[in-house]
Design a protein that fits this description.
It contains three helices and five strands, in the order H-E-H-E-E-H-E-E. The chain is α+β, with helices and mostly antiparallel strands. The chain is elongated, with a radius of gyration of 29 Å. InterPro entries: P-loop_NTPase.
Length: about 130
């Protein structure tokens, strides 16, 4: 499909908080899987219905996503995961960069005099005169 082709060819992906559980599961699958240790303990109930934990325990390895779908569903504001083609997904926090709007003349086809005006500084105003 077209969506799959676009996603495969995009080398940089940024995923913010997801609201749809199916989409979160899809994003978790994209992160890959890792092996995690699961510990199991035995609990016995005696005649007085008191639970006691035995010293016996079992450890087994299970496969889990590198970034769980719950993490995608519960990300804080302005936090996301960056996917690149060369590294594992990494958590990142985004901030706004406030700038002041200023018009800069980058390319000009108008003829201008070679001597700058007193109020203008040529070094801060790049232009090309043809």
């Amino acid at each position: 499909s077209v969506t799959g082709a676009v996603i495969e060819n995009a080398k940089f992906k940024l995923i913010y908080k997801i609201q749809n559980p199916e989409t979160a599961e899809w994003a978790a699958k994209m992160t890959g899987s890792i092996l995690v240790d699961d510990e199991m303990r035995k609990i016995r109930t005696d005649l007085s219905l008191t639970e006691k934990v035995d010293t016996d325990r079992m450890i087994r390895q299970a496969e889990s996503y590198y970034v769980d779908s719950n993490m995608f569903l519960n990300l804080p504001e302005k936090v996301g995961f960056v996917f690149t083609s060369t590294e594992l997904p990494r958590a990142t926090k985004m901030f706004q960069v406030k700038v002041k709007k200023e018009n800069i003349e980058l390319l000009s086809f108008e003829y201008k005099q070679a001597t700058p005006n007193k109020n203008e500084r040529q070094e801060n105003k790049p232009s090309i005169n043809l």
